[in-house]
Write a structure and sequence with these properties.
7-stranded mixed beta sheet; 6 helices; alpha/beta; Rossmann fold; 193 residues; 19% helix
Length: 193
């Protein structure tokens, strides 16, 4: 799950089907734009936020993607009052943002979150506990108040990715006003080497 990899995460790509066309989406720590581009191609209006201006500049010309250079760890939450139909976070963890993400998600919104988890320190970077989700931490985020989210998919554990072993946690969840049951995209068939 390298930050500069241009292919969307298979998990994010699969559960992007939960996000309706024309949704307003926040791609947090968007980096090279792999998820912003995917969602824009599906018809979403995407706000891609990252502190790396050069990474954002590479796709700032897409009319369905608005880019903003923001350092969310130094500057605090600059999107107070903004609401999004979906929020996507991949390979990024800054726990002080959790309440802001919950507040910015529409009642029928979709949260897709995927990042490294505890145990990854045994296999490489990141190894700092500040950047590793604790066991079940994404489930606690989904269960938080004022509006608990309904978990559509959750997984955590060790996997081989790009020739190395990593430990990850992934969550796809929807707000309480989301039309139930959601339509899921089919699980892609495993690749045989």
């Amino acid at each position: 799950m390298p930050h500069d990899h241009l292919e969307p995460s298979p998990f994010i790509a699969r559960f992007a089907a939960l996000i309706p066309a024309n949704a307003r989406v926040l791609d947090l720590a968007a980096g090279s734009g792999r998820h912003a581009r995917l969602l824009a191609a599906r018809g979403a209006q995407v706000l891609a936020v990252d502190r790396d201006a050069a990474a954002l500049a590479a796709y700032a010309c897409d009319p369905r993607i608005e880019t903003r250079v923001l350092d969310l760890e130094a500057d605090g939450w600059p999107l107070t009052g903004a609401t999004f139909d979906a929020i996507v976070v991949a390979n990024y963890l800054h726990r002080p943002l959790f309440p802001h993400l919950r507040a910015a998600l529409a009642p029928d919104g979709v949260l897709l979150y995927e990042t490294f988890a505890a145990g990854n320190e045994h296999f490489g970077l990141p190894s700092n506990p500040a950047f590793l989700l604790r066991d079940g931490e994404l489930l606690h985020l989904a269960a938080g108040l004022p509006l608990p989210l309904t978990v559509v998919a959750f997984e955590q554990g060790r996997e081989d990715s790009g020739g190395r072993t990593i430990v990850v946690a992934r969550l796809a969840a929807v707000g309480p006003a989301y039309a139930w049951p959601p339509m899921l995209a089919p699980t892609p068939a495993p690749r045989v080497a």
